Amino acid sequence: MAGSNVAPLKVDSETDRLISHGAHFLHVTKKEFVAQAVRVYLKVRQAELHAAMQEAMAQLDGTHASRVALVSGLTKEQIEELGGVEEG
């Protein structure tokens, strides 16, 4: 696993139960189980993830407004109605 940074992950009790059982029967730690599961999940959905990333990148046109729109979910028009953003 890259680096030694650890971030807590909160899941509902049913998901925790599934993680615990999976880790137990595969003889890995819960941490290893979740890490491997995330990697497999992203690999399986790689095409979908790539398409979503391409769509997001296509929205960027080099302006601060496009970056704010992408991260906020607002349209450029809505941003302008709220006072816009300063282009640097």
Topology:
Layout: H1 13-26, H2 30-44, H3 46-59, H4 64-72, H5 76-81
Helix pairs in contact: 1-2
Q: How many helical stretches?
A: 5
**Helical amount:** 55-70%
Strand content: under 5%
Structural class: mainly alpha
Largest sheet: none
Number of domains: 2
Overall shape: it is elongated
Rg, please?
20 Å
- First-last Cα distance: 39 Å
Average pLDDT taken over every residue? 91
Low-confidence stretches: none
- Reading the helices and strands in chain order gives HHHHH
Annotation, overall tally of beta strands: 0
Q: In words, what does this structure look like?
A:
With 88 residues, the protein is mostly helical. It folds into two domains: 33 residues; 42 residues, no CATH class. It has five helices and no strands. Helix 1 packs across helix 2. The two termini are 39 Å apart.
